[in-house]
DNA sequence: CACTCGTGGCC
DNA sequence: TGGCCAAGAGT
């Protein structure tokens, strides 16, 4: 036997220590995995868990979701954040029905062509739902590879082609083993090799970690300017959407006016929601979630 | 490439 | 208490 590889060690650790997450169960459908991946984009696992269960109970297939309105998808999304993802997921379901007869495609290029499915999610579905050999690179994986292999404190802000190449080189040749390794590296980054306070003493690759060997130098200052929230358009959009989500049907603009005093910012936020396909005007003085009722009369 | 886009919990 | 963060995508 040769020395265990990096992926081999992490995979072994994963098999014994992986969190018991429902979308990792054996009989989970590709659609359920796709939904989990979209929900997990920038939203913590603990908040996704109940939302994922409820979503799939209501819409077990893309066809089931495509039957309903985008407004219902936005409501079902609840407070997971970034509600554009709910609209995209609805568009995604529709596209799957139209282009792929209701079956989640298994080819990377077809997955990438779906609304709301980007570099990470397409690869995650191809690997975790279909067992294909693709590097699945999220922020956790980039951090792990950057530290353990390159010996650097942290990765850059966005996934680059070089990140995919570096990760691909770590994967075993056999597809199923590669998919397992991808999940394992991701899990390591989420649980052990965390951004803030890595638990190196519990790490399966501590002895071969380049960052550890180099003295574990701290990352340079804030690589990204802090994302403030209070007072931003984002907050105002959230407030407006909260009102529309709770309402059934059109909401008079007077009610929306109450969520934020600054009229300029309020108007900008509302226009943004419309531009993004989350909200639509109804007549001259009311708004509703997109598709929340019969089509608005066409002017003219 | 830099920027936008929610939300809630934690140290 | 408030900055910081959590399985990205689209423009």
UniProtKB/TrEMBL annotation:
Keyword match DNA damage: yes
Ranges of residues in domain HhH-GPD: 39-191
Top-level taxonomic group: Bacteria
GO MF annotations, alphabetized: 4 iron, 4 sulfur cluster binding; 8-oxo-7,8-dihydroguanine DNA N-glycosylase activity; adenine/guanine mispair binding; metal ion binding; oxidized purine DNA binding; purine-specific mismatch base pair DNA N-glycosylase activity
Entry keyword annotation includes Cytoplasm: no
One Pfam family cited in the UniProt record for this chain: HHH
GO terms classed as biological process: base-excision repair; mismatch repair
Catalyzed reactions: Hydrolyzes free adenine bases from 7,8-dihydro-8-oxoguanine:adenine mismatched double-stranded DNA, leaving an apurinic site
EC number(s) recorded for this UniProt protein: 3.2.2.31
Required cofactor names: [4Fe-4S] cluster
InterPro entries according to UniProt: DNA_glycosylase, Endonuclease-III-like_CS2, Endonuclease3_FeS-loop_motif, HhH-GPD_domain, HhH_base_excis_C, HhH_motif, MIG/MutY
Family that this chain belongs to: Belongs to the Nth/MutY family.
Identification of the protein by name: Adenine DNA glycosylase
Organism the protein comes from: Micromonospora radicis
